[in-house]
Amino acid sequence: MAQGQLDAQSVVVPTATGDEGDDILVSVPTREGWWTTFVLYHGCWMTRQTARSVSLVRAQFAPRDDDVVLATYPKCGTTWLKALAFAIANRSSHPVAAGDHPLLTQSPHDLVPFIEMPFRHIHPLAALDALPSPRVLGTHMQHHLLPPRVDELGCRIVYLCREPKDVIVSLWHFINKVKSGTGKTT
User: Fold this and answer.
1) Which of 58, 74, 95 is where one domain is finished?
2) CB within 10 Å: which end of the chain, N or C, has fewer?
3) What end-to-end distance do the CA atoms of the chain give, in Å?
4) Where is the Sulfotransferase domain (predicted)?
5) Does 121 participate in catalysis according to the annotation?
6) Residues 52, 87: Cα–Cα separation, whole Å
7) Is 101 among the domain residues?
């Protein structure tokens, strides 16, 4: 176990509210991070909001056998991968050369929603259930955090990784822009 994990304090963090039907409290270690407090949830450091959202996804998300899950770490090419996957999955209904292609007017993040974001304790998973099959979905969750049914059903998972040193530099710049309120964040 890393030294930072040994130094973490333990607190009780609710994983959901009664509205979602899961009011179990989980005792997890916390630690002050780069820009906010992080909690150690199932072996992964994340914000409290993300931990709540991941908890709801694990409990309530209903994968389908034809789902395609795009898994990336933040700042590893998520937007690029979502745009490519959307264009490929929808090439019969939206030819790439079409002047009215959805990617010309909408963000790839709107066309390929995250499973766990925006935070599922605010935006219900029913929005994902309403999407037609096959669904192309994005996630920043590690594989072991996905609901077990994703593997049981044989959902396709596309994983994109990037040189870790490049990721940390991109993430550092991204977080600083978010904290300062300047610049684009995607």
Assistant:
1) 58
2) N
3) 33
4) 65-179
5) no
6) 31
7) yes
